[in-house]
Design a protein that fits this description.
single chain; alpha/beta; Cytidine Deaminase, domain 2; seven-stranded mixed beta barrel; two-stranded antiparallel sheet; 9 strands; 43% helix; 18% strand; elongated; binds zinc ion
Length: 315
């Protein structure tokens, strides 16, 4: 058996994922994890490419994976296939035409290569200005060997595409009842046939679920602070307009405090002024408080992680 990689074959889906991720994050660095198979003829097959995760760091000349996310997703995706996928290596984007690994890259590549007796593969993407992927086999102790790339599902044995829970294997515990499946078209397809009603229902469903998830999320506190900010600014504006005259302040006091039917009761200017002031202070206070709560809810994980780091620094 060849211990080293001779060439790398990407499935259409895997190669597409690299291109998609590169251009999506352009001009920042990004990357991903390669999953697939190592054949005994030195051919490495990349079936899936995992995204780097939402806690990754994407910068112009720097990139870091969200390790927890990647480990989690790798487990999930690799076991979906009848022939489970293995971790093959990684890829990442470099700025300009730089296709040489940095010291940090060497460390990362070494870590990956040590996980498998056959080493790992590591790819570099450059957009200078066209998309270019350079692939290396990484052995340990650290040594790079540039390898050729092929792309296409047709180059990969069909068995590798089989998923574990194929209905024809009888593994589906609850097969769907047979129903008439009418031929549908995607709304934006070139032939222009769109099922408008379905499309609109679909759209409103998507908008509905987006609103629900928004309300459900940590952003709801930002919404509250935004609303209270609007109320605060409006009452501050009313106050600024009224503050020149005693009559104005009294009128504002009645708007803010008086109950219907009781507003004929004469109120001293000092009381009206005090209460109006108090109201303005309260709304400002509430706005700031809700903003603080929103920021806390949004960034509490980072805050706790930071506190943990500080704790480890203190002996
Ligand atoms: Zn790099």
């Amino acid at each position: 058996m060849h211990s080293n990689c001779q060439y790398v074959v990407f499935s259409d889906r895997a190669y597409n994922a690299i291109i998609n991720e590169s251009f999506k994050l352009h001009p920042n660095e990004t990357g991903g994890i390669l999953l697939g198979h190592i054949l005994d003829n030195g051919c490495w097959i990349v079936m899936e490419v995992l995204p780097p995760g939402w806690n990754s760091v994407f910068q112009y000349a720097y990139f870091e994976y969200d390790e927890r996310f990647v480990n989690y997703l790798a487990q999930s995706v690799a076991t979906e296939y009848e022939q489970e996928l293995s971790l093959l290596g990684l890829w990442h984007r470099h700025p300009g035409d730089n296709d040489i690994f940095s010291h940090t890259d060497n460390d990362t590549n070494r870590t990956f290569a040590e996980l498998n007796i056959h080493g790992a593969i590591s790819g570099l993407v450059n957009i200078d200005p066209t998309f270019r992927l350079t692939m290396f086999h990484v052995s340990h102790p650290l040594h790079y060997n540039k390898v050729e790339i092929e792309v296409g599902d047709s180059l990969i044995p069909v068995d590798y595409f089989k998923l574990k829970h194929y209905p024809e294997k009888g593994l589906n515990p609850m097969p769907p009842t047979h129903r008439e499946i009418t031929e549908g078209v995607l709304p934006n397809e070139q032939n222009g046939i769109t099922l408008e009603i379905n499309d609109n229902i679909q759209k409103s469903k998507i908008i509905g679920s987006k609103i629900l998830s928004f309300l459900d999320s940590k952003y709801v506190f930002f919404l509250i602070s935004l609303i209270s900010l609007v109320i605060t600014l409006f009452s501050q504006h009313l106050y600024n307009t009224a503050k020149g005259s005693a009559e104005g302040i009294k009128a504002l006091y009645h708007v803010l405090y008086a109950k219907p039917g009781l507003d004929t009761f004469p109120v001293p200017y000092s009381v009206a002024s005090f209460k109006v002031h108090f109201f303005i202070d309260c709304v400002w206070f509430f706005t700031l408080l809700s903003l603080l709560v929103a920021l806390f809810v949004r960034y509490r994980k980072t805050l706790f992680a930071f506190a943990k780091d500080i704790k480890t620094l203190i002996p």
